[in-house]
Amino acid sequence: MSRSLLSMLLLLIGWLSADTAAAAEREKIGILRFQAAAGIGDDVRSQVEGFVTQALVDERRFEILERSECDALQVERFLQQAMEPAEQTRIAESGARWIVIGDVNQSSMSTSALDGGGVSYRGLIAYRLRIVDVSTGQLAYSRQFASSKGGLGDTFKNMFDDTTSAGAARQAALQQTTKELAQFIDQAFPIEAQILSIEKRGRKGEALEVLIDRGPADGVSRKTALVVFQRSEIQAGDRVLTREQELAQLEVLRSEGEQLSVAKVRKGGAELAAAFDRQEVVHVKVR
Hints:
By secondary structure, this protein is an alpha+beta fold. The chain has two domains: 26-188, Rossmann fold (3-Layer(aba) Sandwich); 192-286, Thrombin, subunit H, CATH 2.40.10. It is 34% helix and 37% strand. A hairpin with a 5-residue loop joins strand 4 and strand 5 (119-133).
């Protein structure tokens, strides 16, 4: 085998190994078949489900379970923790940490005639998402989303030359929830990182810059704000509560490759350095 061919083969293996490692770190999420209120068609239900699924896929940090692994789970039985043993085994073996449950609770469409012919559709969509922690069976997050009337009108006609598609009107309405949906995903599934080293210290030993194990491939880029915290558990009666105490604040300066970043310490440099030097466990997440 020639030296150049061997080099190319080793490089390819490195790429594949990196992709495999990145995939292994992704959180597994199961998306149950969305439910729809009476009178809302399956095409609407499916479109909303597809929109939410794509938003999660676009994050590039989740592994979405195959549809066949989720279809057998019954939403209400899951929420009531009344699953059959076979269902419990199936979800446990899937490795999913979270289950996403969606309800489409409103969908309306209005039409109006356009000058020169044609019809303009306006759609309104409302849906609710619930995130369940598989390990506890408890509801972790819930939020209602609703679009304002999504008008396509002349702008849509000029861009796509299509004024007769109710599906396109619904998609335009769904797009109006994009920003709020992204914020919800960040809240429910915060990007967490690990501090690998203190890259730069001040005169008194305080941390000025740190290296973290997240980069563009994980949704972390320049100016991303992060918080460093310590996590502890508190017993409250028969419940165990998680407490997070902020230690420092960071801001990403630059990326080093796809999975590393250097961040400056905006606040708490002395506290961060002390904890790091004592080898205490600290956590980092996007604010």
